[in-house]
């Protein structure tokens, strides 16, 4: 009986080992299949996020072709220079710079500044809405930080709803960036313009001066 019992136990143990190895192999195969699938999904996700080498090459070719076509057009065209500012804008620029030299040395005025150069937004649609728009004049500090936009409104400037809409877009974008906005109309005298600029510089000095307790 002991011998028979020993044989039974040995056979049972052997069968158990066989089953354990079998299930272990099945489990191992399942794990391998799982990770292969996961890595494949990850690779597909990365391939969707990143452009393929073929796509990058195609984009580079398109950009190069576009540049070549633009160069061809430019080479076949005539160009003439034109003044950055018209006569009223030049007078306004000179008037503002004189006041800045007296009241805020280091500040200066720039002409025809693109909003895309002084504003940034994570919202791409919002950025492209203002990117190509410009302000007539821009007052900056000694570090070229934009402080105040100055728009010259000549006669008939607000003659169309489109112009008013463009101005509204510029005003709102500048306001949200903390940049001032003032309008100078054709009827303003040099003295009135100087008073406007002095007021801006005075308010700025008050805002940066430490409070006295």
TrEMBL record:
Q: What sequence ranges are listed for the domain DUF2726?
A: 83-199
This protein is called DUF2726 domain-containing protein
Q: Which organism is it from?
A: Sphingobium baderi LL03
